[in-house]
Design brief:
Length: 255
């Protein structure tokens, strides 16, 4: 095996490790519940040491306690670039490195363009798009040291516009473009970038409370499993965009 091949093997986490994520760390935004929580849980189970963030102290403290000793919770609003930088720096100080960045924090306001307020527009764009940029920007120096993986949680709304989706569609279309450019700009440093684009997921997004009627939807743990599978791909191969849909969408007539 050539030296380059050995390096690929090492980066893909395979042959030399007893546990896939042993000695590695991950930073997951918007992770007090839903997809972010499930991803953090899956990574911790794989041996990663994980930092999770949320805007609310009580929620992030509870989530970190539930996830276990290898998970630390930090209050951080991704709309605040300085707060994001501080959170990433603290992660590197605590764990010594940063190997995986999962950009998940997001909000949604849905209204006809005439009714959508400027404040709602700014909240969505500043969180879903600018927040992603701030998070990635803050993580680059640490990721460049040994290579790593950036995963952005986009949406099928990033390619399929719908009525009332002006802010949300714009943020996810933009996030897809940002993710593609990040991949082109950083791949020379052995940093992979993947956009995960789910359809309907059973989460608390947009004030929804998951319930038994959500059985047909994608579950947060499905996205978590996909994340782990992506991280285990050979280093020579990059699934740069992954679209995910419910296999059997709900067909009940809407009231």
């Amino acid at each position: 095996m050539t030296q380059e091949a050995k390096q690929f093997e090492k980066q893909s986490g395979g042959a030399d490790s007893n546990q896939f994520g042993a000695g590695k760390s991950a930073f997951v935004t918007g992770a007090s519940k839903g997809i972010g929580y499930a991803v953090a849980q899956a990574l911790a189970a794989e041996g990663y040491r994980v930092t999770i963030t949320s805007r609310k102290q009580g929620e992030i403290d509870e989530a970190a306690q539930q996830l276990g000793e290898n998970v630390r919770g930090v209050v951080c609003d991704v709309k605040d670039a300085a707060a994001v930088q501080s959170a990433v720096d603290a992660h590197v100080e605590a764990f010594g490195s940063l190997d995986v960045l999962f950009v998940n924090a997001g909000v949604g306001h849905f209204a006809n363009i005439e009714q959508l307020s400027i404040e709602q527009w700014q909240d969505v764009i500043d969180t879903n798009l600018s927040g992603a940029f701030y998070t990635i920007k803050a993580a680059i120096p640490a990721l460049k040291k040994q290579g790593g993986y950036i995963l952005t949680l986009s949406s099928l709304a990033g390619k399929n516009p719908f009525e009332g989706g002006a802010a949300y569609n714009a943020s996810k279309f933009g996030l897809n473009g940002l993710s593609e450019v990040v991949n082109l700009d950083l791949r020379q440093y052995d940093i992979k970038t993947t956009q995960i684009m789910p359809g309907t997921v059973a989460t608390h997004f947009n004030d929804h409370t998951p319930n038994e009627d959500d059985f047909w939807k994608i579950q947060p743990e499905d996205i978590a499993q996909l994340t782990v599978d992506l991280l285990k791909m050979p280093a020579r191969t990059l699934p740069s965009r992954v679209e995910v849909r419910p296999s059997r969408p709900d067909r009940k007539p809407k009231k």
